Amino acid sequence: MARRETPEINAGSMADIAFLLLIFFLVTTTMDVTSGINRKLPEKPPKDAPPPPKIKERNIFEVNINRSNKLLVEGKEMHVSEIREAAMAFIDNGGGTVTDGKGKNDCTYCEGKRDPDSSDNPKKAIISLQNDRGTSYETYITVQNELVLAYSILRERYSMKVFGKSFDNLSKENQKKVKEAYPQIISEAEPTKS
Amino acid sequence: MSKFTKKKKGLPPISTASLPDIVFMLLFFFMVTTVMRETDALIDVKVPTATEVKKLERKSLVSYIYVGKPKQKYRAKYGSSDKIQLNDKFASVGDIASFIMAERATRKEEEIPYMTTSIKADKKSNMGIISDIKLQLRDVNALKINYATHKGKDTQMNF
Description:
The structure holds two protein chains of two kinds.
Chain A: H1 14-28, E1 35-40, E2 60-65, E3 71-73, E4 76-78, H2 83-91, E5 126-131, H3 137-162, H4 172-181, E6 186-188
Parallel strand pairs in A: 2-5, 5-6
Antiparallel strand pairs in A: 2-3, 3-4
Helix pairs in contact in A: 2-3
Chain B: H1 19-33, E1 43-44, E2 49-50, E3 54-55, E4 62-70, H2 72-78, E5 83-86, E6 89-91, H3 96-105, E7 116-121, H4 127-139, E8 144-148, E9 150-151
């Protein structure tokens, strides 16, 4: 019995099939990576929680956004472009001294004006953000972005000074140290109703 | 005489034998990177731009909440005020808690603390609805949130 050879499969159309699939995936693919500003919400306080500790007025940086997207920062009207500078001046003020209060309250690395009416220490400086229910989302995000940017600039400066490297190039441990020096404390109050 | 017949000149044809290989390579690349759309957008969302954006990691642990005005064709039925979309449906603020619970049920228990909720809101929507969402998320202890934004240039000059 003669062994019949299996005929070779013609692979000429392989390229066509592959092209077809390729075009399908090319069309359906979406390259956008979801990116955004990360935030952590505060935990819901238990009902019998003790009242929050009193915080000195000078350690709070109040930002209000009203329904027509105007900013009120520390009682003064302000343009969005100014808030970054103002926040940096507040965080980096370093008005605390070793002697006042309990223990270390001074800031050895701050380069601010050391105004006694502004924040003591970056670790104590709180930015309080309040918006109205009518505030537009875009304004809110822009303000959030500016505040985060203020912190990133200060962190970058600190890491350049202490480690001589950019914050992104630091090791995890050193990044943590930088974050401890300038912790991001942004608290959001309940929105006002209008 | 025949020794000197002119050879046919011209370039030899390019071999296309490796064409399928190249195409397959591209095909696999797109197959791997492609993400199929899971939800149909019922809402027009143009997210705002910001500079300090971070990429979302572990996409499988992200649940999305869309906020914005309904698309033109749904306006007649649902009105043109800001609406929330969860999965494929319009929803109210009260549905968020059950949505988060349902999302959690599909993940492994040890992954739950890493779950993130991404709020994809239109830049024209107002903060009232976003605050309501945040309150709901806080109630169900879904504390990691992310405001979806494009990475862009300085945005403060828009004002």
